[in-house]
Automatic annotation (TrEMBL):
<dbReference type="Pfam" id="PF16696">
    <property type="entry name" value="ZFYVE21_C"/>
</dbReference>
<keyword id="KW-0863">Zinc-finger</keyword>
<dbReference type="GO" id="GO:0008270">
    <property type="term" value="F:zinc ion binding"/>
</dbReference>
<dbReference type="InterPro" id="IPR052113">
    <property type="entry name" value="FYVE-type_Zinc_Finger"/>
</dbReference>
<feature type="domain" description="FYVE-type">
    <location>
        <begin position="40"/>
        <end position="95"/>
    </location>
</feature>
<protein>
    <submittedName>
        <fullName>Zinc finger FYVE-type containing 21</fullName>
    </submittedName>
</protein>
<dbReference type="Pfam" id="PF01363">
    <property type="entry name" value="FYVE"/>
</dbReference>
<dbReference type="InterPro" id="IPR017455">
    <property type="entry name" value="Znf_FYVE-rel"/>
</dbReference>
<dbReference type="InterPro" id="IPR038632">
    <property type="entry name" value="ZFYVE21_C_sf"/>
</dbReference>
<keyword id="KW-0862">Zinc</keyword>
<dbReference type="InterPro" id="IPR000306">
    <property type="entry name" value="Znf_FYVE"/>
</dbReference>
<dbReference type="InterPro" id="IPR011011">
    <property type="entry name" value="Znf_FYVE_PHD"/>
</dbReference>
<dbReference type="InterPro" id="IPR013083">
    <property type="entry name" value="Znf_RING/FYVE/PHD"/>
</dbReference>
<keyword id="KW-0479">Metal-binding</keyword>
<dbReference type="InterPro" id="IPR032031">
    <property type="entry name" value="ZFYVE21_C"/>
</dbReference>
Amino acid sequence: MSSVPDGKKLVRSPSGLRMVPENGAFNSPFSLDEPQWVPDKECPRCMQCDTKFDFIRRKHHCRRCGRCFCDKCCSKKVVLPRMCFVDPVRQCAECGLVSQKEMEFYDKQLKVLLGGGTFVVTLGTSEKSETMTCRLSNNHRYLFLDGESHFEVELSRISSMQILTDGTSPGGGTSRASGMLLHYKPMGSQDAQQLRMEAADDKKVASLWLAAMHKAAKLLYEARDQ
């Protein structure tokens, strides 16, 4: 184990080399823990094609699900940023497809969230609203809202998230995201607070940001349910 700048460290596990925060409390809320591998003695056959393992047919563990497969069923190496692996790692066909789909979030939508969007923000039942820029923090743990005032929402303290739409788009296409309704617990409080965000002037950018946030919510809930 060796330390590197920016509060991260390199850790070598049986699955591969990982770059993780020095303090586990600062893990990304989208991250997943490494699975426990199915013990070798409990998998005499491939858990996909039922091929029996022997001296020639070696067993391999999928780094995402921990199950045991033959080389044919677990030969592909796919990037897995949710577990902080430095290099692509061996995954079964099913997990590899999931990881490839998630890469769209890391390659595109995460950049949109970090870039931010402009919204009209209303806190609680207040009749006062403020135009603010909302963006995801660099460590992915907070939503930063900046206008005349500034406040933060920790993603791990969001209890529900609803994307608001403006009906059908021109030409009868699918509806476009126009806002978001959050319920979260502020730090030091057990009482839920409501936060309403509606797209301001640049509705296209706001809609893209909201669509990315919708995908982020799915990853967030999956990580919580792990």
